[in-house]
Design goal:
- The structure holds two protein chains of two kinds.
- Helix content of chain A is about 30%, strand content about 15%.
- Chain A has helices at about 35-40, 95-105, 115-125, 135-140, 150-165; strands spanning about 10-20, 20-30, 60, 65-70, 80-85.
- In chain B, the strands form four sheets. In chain B, strands 4-5-10-6-7 form a five-stranded antiparallel beta sheet. A four-stranded antiparallel beta sheet of chain B has the order 11-12-13-14, sandwiched between helices. In chain B, strands 1-3-2 form a three-stranded parallel beta sheet, with helices on one face.
- Chain B contains eleven helices and 14 strands.
- Chain B has helices spanning about 15-25, 35-40, 80-85, 85-90, 90-100, 105-110, 110-120, 125-130, 215-225, 230-235, 250-265; strands spanning about 5-10, 30, 50-55, 65, 70-75, 135-140, 145-150, 155, 160, 165-175, 180-185, 195-200, 205, 215.
- Chain B has three domains: about 5-50, Uridine Diphospho-n-acetylenolpyruvylglucosamine Reductase, domain 2 (2-Layer Sandwich), CATH 3.30.43.10; about 60-175, Uridine Diphospho-n-acetylenolpyruvylglucosamine Reductase, domain 3; about 180-265, CO dehydrogenase flavoprotein, C-terminal domain (Enolase-like, domain 1).
- By secondary structure, chain B is an alpha+beta fold.
- In chain B, helix 2 links the parallel strand 2 and strand 3.
- The two termini of chain B are about 30 Å apart.
- Classes of the chains: A alpha+beta, B alpha+beta.
- Chains A and B meet through strand 4, helix 3 and helix 4 of A and strand 1, helix 1, helix 2, strand 3 and helix 6 of B.
Chain lengths: ~170, ~280
């Protein structure tokens, strides 16, 4: 190993699977994942709300688990499987969580919705349930809805959980 | 907000990470899950020359039972502590504390070793580790040493970890406590505890009551002398130096510590509730 005055590089190559497709970019090392997605890949569903890891509007799936893409370097996503809200539907067929949000009118202005939907996808994948209303509200504490439209969001999640418990 | 310009290097494995630490020391800042470090870099409250990304050092992500202790690799993420059967069986206090961290998204990335190295005086998992009398393993390219978790932090953000070392493991002594409690008081939208208390048998530890997480020795000695809960809990803030900031005054934090310790010693039904 050669010892330079300063280790590392100021730009970094990032290769990741994004919504099922292999993507590569070289970006400044300080680039956040949400900016790689929005500005380099044109995937604008993940939004920057608070930019301080509180609101969850930037939530994406990182190897299947929900993370806040404003609090992750693009470089950390190298080799990862990233999914954004754009990658959920199968053609014209909505993902079941999207369908439940539509059915229960679980959105108002829509700004928090992509992050909220992905947080729910992650929750249902990791927690076999059955879920109580309390469970759902606590599990979504990392996603803020500034319209305060929580009731219908919780209803949508409980309906999904109820259907899978029955099914 | 984006961090100031940084150099970045992704370590291949632990060996390379330790070689680089030895060569460059504090010029490198280890990056684990980044859930405390990245917000600090974005707000420019912290500056680093070069990030040493440990994301590929997967050999430090494990929970292992080793007869007289439960070993947790430094890069074990919080969510794993909530699901791991060994943690559930041998160190449920650790799972309770992990459940109190941030939210699910944060727990999907944040790591045990990252929390220890960050040395935040209000951190949940380090608080539980202090109550459990856990020991942290610090490794360098040339050696390895063990330090009690209670002696790792010396000030907010400052530890005894040397520039050539990395936090590689934490060891929870077994058998674990027969009796344990974890209680935190936080304003929900702010996440970090104002004050939190962890009890493990006769040990009582407090977070948010000074520059580092500390044992409540006044409470412990009162209990050892046979004092009741009220008398013991009244000594919760003895020797503490809590911060006075926008979130809470010194007097309020002292009050909280006494109330929380009293509850933790009396109310078995009060634990952190968080679905997994």
């Amino acid at each position: 190993m050669s010892i330079d005055a300063r280790p590392g590089t100021t730009t970094v190559a990032v290769s990741a699977t994004v919504n099922g497709r292999p993507e590569s970019r070289r970006v400044p090392a300080r680039t956040l994942l949400v900016h790689l997605l929005r500005e380099e890949f044109g995937l604008t569903a993940a939004t920057v709300g608070c930019d301080t890891s509180s609101c969850g509007a930037c939530t994406v799936l990182f190897d299947g688990r929900s993370v806040k893409s404003c609090t992750l370097l693009a470089a950390q996503a190298d080799g990862a499987d990233i999914r954004t809200a754009e990658g959920l539907a199968d053609g014209d067929r909505l993902h079941p969580v999207q369908e439940a949000f539509r059915e229960h009118h679980a959105l108002q202005c829509g700004f928090c919705t992509p992050g909220m939907v992905l947080a729910v996808v992650s929750l249902l994948a990791e927690n076999p349930g059955p879920l109580t209303e309390h469970d759902v509200r606590h599990a979504l504490k990392g996603n803020l809805c500034r319209c305060t439209g929580y009731h219908n969001i919780v209803r949508a999640v409980l309906a999904l959980d109820g259907a899978r418990q029955a099914g | 907000m984006i961090p100031a310009s940084v150099h970045y290097h992704r370590a291949r494995d632990l060996t390379e990470a330790l070689e680089l630490r030895q060569a460059y020391g504090d010029q490198l800042r280890p990056l684990a899950g980044g859930q405390s470090l990245l917000p600090a870099l974005k707000l420019r409250r912290d500056r680093v020359d070069t990030l040493l990304d440990l994301g590929r050092v997967t050999e430090l992500s494990y929970v292992a039972y080793r007869d007289d202790h439960l070993a947790v690799g430094a890069l074990t993420r919080y969510h794993r502590l909530l699901d791991d059967p060994l943690v559930d069986r041998h160190a449920p206090l650790l799972a309770m504390a992990a459940a109190a961290v941030g939210d699910r998204q944060v727990r999907h990335l944040g790591t045990v070793g990252g929390a220890l190295a960050q040395a935040d005086p209000a951190a949940d998992v380090p608080l539980a580790l202090v109550a459990l009398n856990a020991v942290v393993v610090l490794r360098s390219a040339t050696g390895v040493r063990q330090v009690p978790v209670a002696e790792l932090a010396v000030a907010p953000g400052v530890t005894v970890c040397r520039p050539d070392e990395l936090v590689t493991e934490v060891r929870v002594p077994l058998p674990g406590p027969a009796r344990w409690r974890y209680l935190t008081f936080a304003r929900p939208a702010l996440e970090w505890s104002l004050v939190a208390v962890a009890v493990a048998d006769s040990r009582v530890a407090l977070a948010g009551m000074g520059p580092t997480i500390r044992r409540a020795y006044g409470v412990e000695s009162a209990l050892a002398q046979g004092a009741g809960v009220a008398v013991a809990a009244a000594r919760a803030d003895e020797g503490c130096d809590p911060p006075d900031d926008a979130r809470a005054s010194v007097a309020y934090r002292r009050h909280l510590s006494r109330v929380l310790v009293a509850r933790a010693l009396t109310d078995p039904g009060t634990t952190v509730e968080e679905p997994r």
